[in-house]
Each structure stands twice: as C-alpha cells, then as structure tokens.
C-alpha cells in the first residue's frame, strides 16, 4: 500500500494544482465544477471519447492527455507527467474500474482526492458489511443456501451492474439456477421489498461536517420495464436484469430526511473509527425504503456516483447549504480550495 507520507511528499512540490480524471462517468461535472472553482483541468482520454467532451465547451478539460488504453495511466512516465502537471486525481467509478483498485493502492503514485484506504473497505463484501454494521445501519439479511426461507437476490462478486444476478426463494431453486462453478462465489441476500433511494453525501474534514447533497434512483434495464409487459412474477424473476442505464432525480418526503441525514453521519463516524481519516468527500448509500418507512442499506459507493450528474447546477438539497450552484463535482474542488487556503491539503488528499 502506498503510504500517505509518499503522497504528501509529492504535494509539497505542487505549485498550481490541476484537477484530473479519466474522461468518463462523471468527468463533465468534475471538470465543470473544477473550472467554477478556478482550477485548470486535465482529461485522460481515449480517442473515441474525445468528441463527447469537445461537444461541451464549459465542461471539456483544458488539456487532454490522450491514451490508447487506460492501463497506460499506470506507466511510470505517465504518472510522472501527471505529477509534473501538479495533478490531483478525482477518482470516479470508471477510474477505479479501469485502473483497478489494487493498482491504485500499490502502483499509482499520484495525489488523489479522498482516502485510498476506502477502496479496500468498499471492494471487500465482508469489510463493507462490517463498516455498515459498525455504523448501526440496517442491512439486508444474508443466507446460506440451506437457510433460504424467503425471496432472495443472488449476487456474484465483481458482477458490476448487477450482471447475472437472479432471484430465488429456496435452496432447490438456488441450486437449479446456479452453475456448479459459481456456487461458492454466490452471495445470497434477502430481497428487500420497497423503493430504492440513493442519497448522496459529502464528508468535509476541512469544515468538519457531513453534507446531504441530493438523491437519485438508478434506472435499471430491464427490471424497471418488465411490468409493462404484464408478465407473471415467475417470468419477471427469470428475465429481470439490473444493468444501470440512467438516473432519475428524487426528493423524499421531509419526514424521512432525519433518517437519511443520520445514516450519512453514522457512515462517516464508523469510517473514522475503522479506517481513519475515513470516508473523505462524496459517497452514496444504496438503500431501499420499506413500507414501515425504514431504510435498508444494501451497498455503499465510496466516491462520486453517476447519480450526481443530475445536479450540475445543484440539487433541491444542496441549494440550502450553498448560496450558489453546487454539484458534487464542484464540491470536491471547493474542498481542495478550502484545504489549500488553510494549508491542510494533506487532510483531503491521499
Ligand atoms: P453497482 O456496483 O453498480 O452498484 P452491483 O453489481 O454491486 O452494482 P448491487 O448495487 O448490489 O449490484 O445491486 C444491483 C441492483 O439489484 C440494485 O440496484 C437493486 O435494484 C437490486 N438489489 C440489490 N440488492 C437488493 C436487495 N437486497 N433487495 C432488493 N433489490 C436489491
């Protein structure tokens, strides 16, 4: 694991910070927000993605660093170039996916916004569970195959975007639907009936507060459209898949806000106890609100989520925190700016 000291060492040579990320996921928002905060921006880009960013003059990076493959980000020369340009990387989901969590932990010697240690706590199901339990959040029950006594969702590790997940209510059904080789890697969780909400938070070590920035719901193909065909529950269970294709904006009834705000605060407190300096910056809880109006958290995304792309000019909640448009992307750059002014960059960079 790269040490904080090593990263701090690079930061001391930085004169004029540039905000950098891979041109994908939430990069438009990150660049747009960085520009609003007065930073130069660097986009690590593959040739076919460039036209997307060139289409939006206010959100395209000031400078492109072109690559043929994102694995090039790990080349020593490329890392050196990023440091020479005084880059601070804002890691989004695609950045972590393309560069790889282990590589980021061990080989990527460039200052990043947030806490690198979070990768191991988010990426390992057992650690993620410990984090959420330590925060006292309600999480779905887990089952061994022979304990299944209700509708369950069967997941597979690393199956990004819910690929090949399926529903099953008994050991027999589980056995029938799982290939032999996959049985040991299957993770069986109670299927929570309710409505999904994905609240976005931001933990600021500089201001010492947890901010509630917005909410979205993911649009998932094809589970979100199967009911239009009037299928039976069996058919929906057989055909349903969970690949995210977009995001929908949401607000909750105001009486639910105390619960959501407290859940974010507890998640941060738990992270500070388990892996200081904790869950720095943006994160999202993936929750289901049951009909008893309690939220069950089935996953955490420990960085900026694509659902925040809904609010480049601020959300129906962020407007009450800032007297100006504040996206999650801009909030990251604002935190870097505040930390810089207070000479506390090492608090938010690792
Ligand atoms: P990502 O990494 O993109 O968040 P993933 O592969 O980790 O996706 P999950 O987010 O765990 O997958 O689940 C995918 C979808 O499956 C959820 O968005 C939700 O619709 C459904 N889902 C997951 N867990 C549960 C659960 N316990 N009860 C009901 N639905 C669930």
Classify the secondary structure makeup into a structural class. Answer: alpha+beta
The helix/strand series, from N terminus to C terminus, equals HEHEHEHEHHHHEEEHEEEHEHEEH
Q: Uncertain regions: pLDDT < 50 for 5+ in a row?
A: none
Query: In which range does the helix fraction lie?
Result: 25-40%
Number of helical segments? 12
Shape: globular
Domain count, please report it.
3
First-to-last CA distance: 11 Å
User: What name is given to the CATH topology of the largest domain?
Assistant: D-amino Acid Aminotransferase, Chain A, domain 1
Question: How many runs of DSSP E, i.e. beta strands?
Answer: 13
Explain how this protein is built.
This protein is of the alpha+beta class and 350 residues long. It has 3 domains: 4-112, Rossmann fold; 123-137 and 193-221 and 243-323, D-amino Acid Aminotransferase, Chain A, domain 1; 142-190, Dna Ligase, domain 1, CATH 3.30.1490. It is 31% helix and 23% strand. It has helices at 4-11, 27-36, 50-54, 76-84, 93-99, 101-106, 118-123, 125-134, 171-177, 233-239, 257-274, 328-341, and strands at residues 18-22, 40-45, 63-66, 87-89, 142-143, 152-156, 166-168, 186-190, 195-204, 209-222, 242-249, 281-289, 295-301. Strands 11-10-9-12-13 form a 5-stranded antiparallel β-sheet. Strands 3-2-1-4 form a 4-stranded parallel β-sheet. Helix 2 (27-36) crosses helix 12. The longest helix is centred in the last third of the chain and has 18 residues, at 257-274. The model has no long low-confidence stretch (mean pLDDT 95). The structure holds adenosine-5'-triphosphate. Adenosine-5'-triphosphate is lined by residues 140, 153, 155, 159-162, 165, 189-192, 196, 218, 220, 242, 244, 286, 288, 298-299. Adenosine-5'-triphosphate (ATP) is lined by residues 140, 153, 155, 159-162, 165, 189-192, 196, 218, 220, 242, 244, 286, 288, 298-299.
């Amino acid at each position: 694991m790269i040490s904080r000291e090593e990263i701090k060492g690079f930061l001391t040579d930085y004169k004029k910070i540039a905000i950098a990320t891979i041109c994908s996921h939430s990069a438009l928002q990150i660049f747009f927000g960085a520009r609003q905060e007065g930073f130069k921006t660097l986009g690590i880009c593959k040739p076919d993605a460039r036209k997307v960013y060139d289409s939006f003059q206010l959100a395209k990076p000031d400078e492109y660093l072109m690559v043929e493959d994102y694995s090039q980000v790990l080349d020593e020369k490329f890392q050196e170039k990023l440091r020479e340009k005084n880059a601070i990387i804002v890691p989004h989901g695609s950045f972590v996916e393309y560069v790889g969590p282990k590589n980021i932990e061990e080989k990527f010697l460039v200052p990043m916004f947030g806490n690198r240690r979070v990768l191991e706590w988010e990426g390992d199901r057992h650690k993620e569970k410990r984090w959420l339990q330590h925060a006292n959040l309600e999480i779905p029950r887990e089952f061994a195959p022979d304990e299944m006594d209700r509708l369950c969702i069967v997941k597979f590790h690393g199956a990004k975007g819910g690929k090949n997940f399926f529903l099953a209510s008994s050991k027999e059904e589980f056995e029938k639907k799982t290939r032999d080789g996959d049985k040991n890697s299957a993770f069986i969780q109670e299927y929570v009936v309710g409505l999904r909400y994905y609240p976005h938070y931001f933990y600021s070590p500089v201001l010492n507060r947890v901010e509630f920035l917005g909410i979205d719901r993911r649009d998932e193909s094809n589970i979100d459209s199967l009911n239009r065909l009037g299928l039976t529950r069996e058919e929906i269970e057989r055909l349903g898949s969970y690949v995210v294709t977009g995001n929908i904006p949401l607000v909750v009834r105001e009486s639910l806000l105390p619960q959501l705000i407290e859940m974010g605060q507890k998640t941060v407190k738990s992270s500070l106890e388990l892996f200081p300096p904790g869950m720095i910056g943006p994160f999202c809880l993936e929750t289901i609100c049951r009909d008893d109006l309690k939220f069950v958290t089935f996953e955490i995304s420990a960085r900026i989520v694509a659902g925040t792309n809904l609010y480049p000019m601020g959300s129906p909640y962020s407007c009450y925190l800032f007297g100006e448009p504040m996206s999650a992307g801009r909030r990251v750059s604002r935190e870097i700016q505040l930390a810089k002014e207070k000479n506390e960059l090492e608090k938010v960079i690792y």
